[in-house]
User: Fold these one by one.
Assistant:
Number 1:
Amino acid sequence: MQRHLISAADLTRDDAVLILDTAEEMARVADRPIKKLPTLRGRTVVNLFFEDSTRTRISFEAAEKRLSADVINFTAKGSSVSKGESLKDTAQTLEAMGVDAVVIRHGASGAPYRLANSGWIDSAVINAGDGTHQHPTQALLDAFTLRRRLLGREAALGRDLAGRRVTVVGDILHSRVARSNVDLLHTLGAEVVLVAPPTLVPVGVESWPCEVSYDLDSTLAKSDAVMMLRVQRERMNAAFFPTEREYSRRYGLDGERMARMPEHAVVMHPGPMVRGMEITAEVADSPRCTAIEQVTAGVSVRMAVLYLLLGGNEPALSRQPSAERTASTAHAAEEK
Ligand code: NCD
C-alpha cells in the first residue's frame, strides 16, 4: 500500500481486498462491549474539514478514537481559513504541532493530492472527499457493504466483486462518490452502469471503465445493486433539468421500480438522502436499502485504512501482548 490514500484509482485489487478484509476484522471489534483497540495510542490524527460533512466526519472521528489515536478536529468555519489563511499555512501549522495523519475534505478537486505531494508536511494524507474528484473511503465502504450483502459475511473474505453489476444513478457530473466507485468497482471486477440525464453525465466519460445509459428502467432487472446519488445543488450554477418532479419521475427510485430489481439486489445511498427526490421514503426505509449499513461499514473501513497506513505490521486484532505493553506491565509490577 502507498503511504497516502488520495484516489480509489491508486488501489490495486489486492490492496482493496486487504482493506476490506481488515475492515471485517475491525467490524468484530464493533460487536464487542468495549470497542477500543490500542493500535494508534500516542499517534495524532487531525480531521481537516473545509466542506460540510455529517457521516464522513463523525465516522473518521469514531474510527480514530476506536484505535486510541489522539484526535484534533478542525473545521474551516470558525478557523483562520475564514481570515484568508492558505491551505499551505494551515497544513504547516498542524505539522508544527506534530500530527501523524491528516484526513482532509476540501471543496477543491486535487487539494489532498497537493497536500500529500507538496513537501509541506510529512504526515499520511487521507482524502475524505475533494470537490467533484474522489472520495476513496466512501467507495471502500460501499464495496464492503456490497461484498457482505451479495456474498455473505464469512464467504466475503479474500474475495472481490467479479461479475457483479452495479448501477449508479443520478448526478454523476458532480459526484466524487460516482468517480471513486467506478474506479474501485472496476478494480474489484464488477461491471458498472452509470444512469443520468445527459446534462449530468461528465464530458470524457467514454474513457471511464463503465457503461452509460439514460434509461433507468432498462437497467433495473440486470442490477445486483442500484446506487442512488443526491443531486448536488450546491455545485450547480445552472439548471440541469426542467423540474424536480420531472427528474424524480425519470431518475428517482420508487417502490414500483425497486420491485423490478432481482430479489437479491440491494439499494445503496451514500447519504445525505433527499427523500422524494432521488429516492422515495418507501425505498429508503425498506430492508433492501443499505444506507444505514453503509454508515456502520464506514467506521470499520476507516479503522482499516488508518491501521494499514499508520499502524504496525502486527495483525489488527493480535492478542499477543506487544513489546511495549509487556514492558509497561513489567514496569508497573516493579513499582509494586
Ligand atoms: C457524499 C459526499 O459528500 O461526497 N456524501 C458522503 O460523503 N457520504 C455525497 C453527497 O454529498 O451527496
Number 2:
Amino acid sequence: MKRAVKTGLLLAASLLANGLHAAPAKTDPLAPTGHWSVTAKGQAPLPPMGWNSWNAFNSDIDEEKLMAAAKALVDTGLAAKGYRYVDIDDGWWLKRRQTDGRLLIRTAAFPSAQTGDGNTSFRPLTDRLHAMGLKAGIYSDIGRNSCGQAYTADFKGQPEGNVAEREVGLYDHIDQDIGLMMGEWGFDLIKIDGCGIRAMSPENKLVSSGQYRALGPLVDYENLSRTDIPAVRDLYRRVGLALARTRPANDYVLSICLWGAADVRSWAKELGNMSRTSEDISPNWERMLHNLDSASRRELYAHPNSWNDPDMLYVGTGEFDTAHIQEARSHMALWAMLNAPLIIGYDMRKATPELLSILGNSALIALNQDAGGNQAVLAYDGDTAQIFVKTLADGGKAVALLNRTGGPIDVKLTAAHLKLREDSRIDLTDLWTGAQSRFTKETNLHLAGHQTLVFRVSGARVHPGGLYLSEMPGSVNPAVDGIVEPMADPMVYRGLLPWRNTRGDGEHPIYGGWGGARADATPYGMSLRVGGVNFSSGIGALANSRLEVRNAGYRNFAARVGVDDSALSPDARVRFEVFADGRSVARSGWMKRGDQPVALNAPVEGARIIELVARGDRGDLQNVTVTWGSAALDR
Ligand code: GLA
C-alpha cells in the first residue's frame, strides 16, 4: 500500500518536472477527491460518554457490578448528562465452543446470560440496559487471544478449556463474532484490542509452553518498522465491513484499542469512531500526562465520528480521588478539552457527591460535547505549563491552563493565545466556580500544583470575518500528511509505568505520528515562519500533503503559503494548490525555502470540500515543512 502511494507520487512529480501538465495519474494521492475521507461508518458525531468496567474492576467484572454502575448512571443524573454507554471490558468470556465456533459467556459472572438451550446470550442484559435508556458495549481482541491472556493471566475471568477453546479473539472469526456480539446480542459499541497480534510470538513462553498458538506478531509495540502496518489495518478494515453488514442502520461505535501502535493515528480516522493514542492510563499524575501528550498534539487527527482516545477516565481513583481534587479536576477538564471520549472507570456504587460534581460538571461536558467537534489546540506548549484553546460551534472559545508541575506557578494568558484583540475587553467565566473576570491584553493567573483553570471566553476576534483553519481542526483532515516513513513522536512525557517501574532501559518514543500536520505549529512543533514572516495562525504540514477542509457555508479561502523556514532541505521545491469540490481555484508557482510567502485567495462559495495540496518536486521529500499561513475561511 505504502509502496503504491510512493510510486504514484514519484510518477506525478516526474510528470510535472517534465513540464507535462497532464491529468494526475489515478494513483496520485495528491489528486483532489472532492470527498471528506473521515469515516462515516458508525455513530459518534460527538465523543462517546459512558462507563467501562476495566479501570474499576480489571477483568473481575460481573452482572451485579455492571448493573450497579448502570443504575448509578441513571440515578445520579449522569446518564441524562450524556454518560450512556455501559461497557463490559475483558473478563466476560468463558470459551469458544469447538463444534461451531460460538463464543460462550461466563455465566457464573453473568447469570442472565444462561439461556437454557446450551447457548449463552447477552441479549437479556443488553435489553435491560436499553430499557434503562442506556447503550451497551463489549470488548474483544483482533488476534486469537485477549490482553488478559497475554498480560494479566493472574486476573479473574480468563477463558477456560483447551488451546482452541481459549482462542476467544476475533481472528478467523470476524464475521461470526461481530454478528453474534453486535447482531444477536445487541451491543452498540465494541472495543477491539490488539494483544493477540502483539504478544503471541513463537518465543513468548506462553506460546512455547503450549498454552497459546503463535500468531505473528504483527505489532511490535516498541518499533514501527517491525510492525506490519498494512496487515494490522486490514484486520480492522475487515471488522469495519462486518459491522456495516451486521448493523446496516449504522448505529454502532467501533473503538480501536491499539495504544498508538501500528501508526494507527494515520489510519484510524478512516475506520474507527475512537482510537487509543497510548498505553493504558494509570491512576497517577505522570501517566495522565503521558496519555494527555499522546493526543494533545494530534488536534488535526480528531473529527466528528472519529476521536482521539487517550484512554478512560481515572477520576475517583489513586491520585485522582477526592483527596486530590486539583488532579481529579485537571484530568476531567483536559479530557473534556481534547474531545476525548468520557468513559468513567470508577465503581459507581461508591461515588460521592464531590466526585459526581466533577464527572457531572455540565459546563465541561458541554465543551466536550460541543457540536463544532474541535479538539483544543495548544496555544502555549511547555513542560511546565500548557495552554489549550478550543473553538466552539457558536464561535466562542474555551481555554484551559495546565500546571504540569507539583508546585505553584504564575502564568500569563494573553489575547494572542485566544486569537482575540488585545485592545478590547476579554471576559472569562471559570467553569469550576462560575466566577467572572475580565482583562485586556494579558492577565496573570495563579495555578496551584497540578491545577488546571478552565474558562469560557468571549472577546473581539482578531479575524472577525470568519475562522482560521487552526480554529476549526475538527473540519481539517490531513488525508495525506506527507510522511514517507512513520516515525515515533518524541514529545510524550514518560512518567514511571507502575507495572514496569525502572526495569529495562527506559521508555522510548513509540507512538507513530511525528511529522503529522499541526494547527499553529510546524509538524515538528516549531512556530510557523515563511521567508522570515511569522504566522501565529496557520496549518503546518509536510510537502506532498493533501488536506481536506469541510466548508460550512464560507465564501472565500485565503492563505499566505510557502516552504517553512524550518524545512531541512534548502532546494526542495513545492507548489501549493487549492481545490474546491475537486476544481483548481488557486495555485502558486514552485517555491523553495526562504521565498517570501505567496497569497492564495479563492472563491469557495457553495463548495463542500476544499483541498489544500502542497506538492513537492520529488515524491520522496522528507522533513520539508510547508506552511498555510493565516489560512482562513471567510463569510
Ligand atoms: C488492554 C487495554 C485496556 C484493557 C485491557 C484488558 O490493556 O488497553 O484498556 O482493555 O487490555 O485486558
Number 3:
Amino acid sequence: MAVTEGRADLAAVRGTDAGALLSHPPVPPAREGPGRPPFADFRAYLDYLERARRDPDAYWAEIASELEWMAPWARVRTGDLPDFKYFVGGLTNVSVNCIDRHLRQGRKNKAAIVWEGEPGDRRVWTYQMLHDETCRVANALRQAGVGKGDVVAVYLPNLPETFAVVHACYRIGAIYNVIFSGFSADAVRSRLLDSRARLVITADATYRRGRVIPLKRTLDEALDGLDFVERVVVVRRAGIEVPMAAGRDVPYDEFVRGMPARCEPEPLEANEPGFIIYTSGTTARPKGLVHAGAGFLVGAYANVKWSLNLQDDDVYWCTADVGWLTFPIFALVGGLAHGATHVVYEGALDYPSPGRFYEVAERYRVNKIFTAPTALRMLSRYGPDWPRRYDLSALELIALVGEPLDPETWYWVRRHVGDGRVEINNTYGQTETGTAWISGVAGVTPARPGSCGLPLFGYQAEVVDEQGRPVPPGTTGYLLITAPFPCLARTIWGDHQRYLDTYFSRFPGRYFTGDAAVYGDDGHFWVLGRVDDVINVAGHRLSTMELESALINHPLVAEAAVVGVPDAIKGTVPVAFVVLKSGVEAPAGVEDQLKEEIARRISPIARPARVYVVDAMPKTRSGKIMRRLLREAVAEGRITGDTTALEDPEVLERIVRAVGPAGAPAGGQHQGERQRGA
Ligand code: PRX
C-alpha cells in the first residue's frame, strides 16, 4: 500500500542535480573548534560511531545516565519499530533536568535567558529566577485543576514566560502543546479541536516588523463556540487592551500572584507523553505528534551535545520560533539541559534593518547560533557589508536545520560572517524524529557544503528504491530509519492508526521520512527534499492539502491544487491553481482575494506566491489531479515528465501557456513575512 495519505514520488526531486551536490569536497572543521571538541580526533569519532552502531541501547543508556533520574529504569529498551519503549520504569522530570539540576551545580545566578524584544526591550532571567517562575506557574496550574495528563495549549511568542510555562507543564506532568504564534484563527482552532486543551496560555500581542500582532484577539476568534477550554491565561506583552471573558480569562500576573516559588516535581515514567506538537502531513488535518517526556529529553540533550558541543561558558542563540520543534530541541529542553546561557529574541531577524541579526550576536557576544537556511539566504541577499559593520569575533559555530542548504550559501557564510573561520553545521531532522539526527559533530567532523553529514550515534539510516532495496552511494532514493531511538514520536494524538499508516506502511518495519536523499562514498548524506505533499516555506512546514482545503472553502472556488516550487530565498513557495465554480466569471482581483483567504485562514507565511485561475485541472483518467505536472509547469515553464496518464493533454497545454515560459514566481518576497529562522 502506498502511504495512505500521500503521493510519495521521487519525481518530486527530479530537478535536483545530486551529482553536482556530491562534487563539493570536505572542508575540515574550524581550526580552533568550538570549545573542547568531544573527540580527540576524527578516528576517535569513528570508533565511537562504530561502538554505538553495534550496541545502540548501550549508547542511549550512557547518554541517559548523564541526566538525573528519580528512579532507575529496569530495561533500556523493549520492543522495536513501530512499537517500542525506552528506559522502561525509569522515573524522571524534564524540568528538574533543565533547571533544578543547574541550581545544585553552581549555576543558580547564571543567566539562563537573555531576552530581547523586537522593539529593543531587554530582560535577563537567571536559572534561579527561571526555577521560581516555573514553580509559580506550576502551582497556579495545579490550583486551576490542571494535573498529570491534562493538555495545556501554549500559543505564545518567544518570551521568558514561555520557558516557565513549558517547564511548569513538565513539572506537573501536564501535556503541553505549542502552537506557532504566526498561525491564524482557523489553524489555531483546528489544533485546539484536536488536542482538546483545557487551558490555553497566550499573550495580549507580540511584535513583528514593528507591528503589534494581536494574539489574544486571534485566539478569541479561534475559540468561538469551543466550550472545552476552561481557562485562558494572558501574558501582558504589548500592554494593549484585550477583551477578557468573565470566568474564563485571567491575566498571567494575576494567575501566578502569591504562588509559592517551590513546587514538588511529579516523577514521570520515561514513556509518558511530554508534549504534543502539530505538524503538517499530507492531508488537510494536521497531525498531533506525541513525544515521550524523557525520550525527548534524552534525544534533545544528545543532539545539542554533539551538534553544538554546548559548553558552560557559551552564549548561545537559537533563532527559531517556539512554535516549531527546533526551539524545544535546541533551546527549551536540549539547550537548557546543558545549562548554557540562551539568547532569546522575539522578532524578525532583519528588522528594523538587515543588521539586526548581527547586532544581537555582537551585543551579547554570542558564540554559537542555531538558525535556518532561509535566514542565512536572506542575510546573504543583503550582502557582505552588513556583517562587516559588527564585531562578530566571538562567533564560532552556526548550526541550522529545516530545509536543504545550498552550497553557495554555505560558502557565503563561511567567507563573510565572522572572519572566514566559523564552523557551519547543517543538520537534518523532523518534528517526528524529535532531533536533528543527521549532523556533523561540532569541532570534529569535516563538512561537505550542502550536506548534512553522517547520522549521529544511535540512529540507523537507509536510502532505498521503490521496492525498499538499499541503493548504492550516489543514487537518489527514499530516506528511511531502520531502528528505534528514544525521541521518535510515539503516536499521533488520538489516532494511532494514522501514525502506523503514515510512517510504517509503505516500508513495513521501517520509518519512512517522506524525504528523498542521496549519500556519498564517505557516508555523508544530502537530503534533497520532500517526496510528498509537504512543503517547507522559509523552513515552515506546511501541507499543500491544508492550503487547498482553505481555497475550496472560498465561495467562488470549485477545485484547487497547490504545489511547492523552488524560490531563491525561501527554498520553496506555494503556488495555487484554482478552477472557479461553473458559470462564475473571474472577478477582478480574484487572485489577490484568494491569496488573502489563505493568509487569513492559515497564516501569512502560507500566502501563495501566485494564484492561477484555470478552466480545468490536468487529471488522470481516474480523476486525480497530477500536481507534479503543475509543479513542472511553474518551475520549468514546460513539461518534460511523463504525461501518458493524462485524460486530456490539452488542459495541460493551456496551463503551460497561461503560466508562461519563465514560470517560476519572483523570489525575494520575504519582506513582511515570517521565517522559521526568525
Ligand atoms: O524535508 C525535510 C526538511 O524539513 C522537513 C522537516 O520539517 P520539520 O518537521 O518542520 O522540521 C523540524 C526540524 C526539527 C524534513 O522532512 N529538512 C530539515 N532539515 C533539512 C531538511 N532538508 C534538507 N536538509 C536539511 N538539513
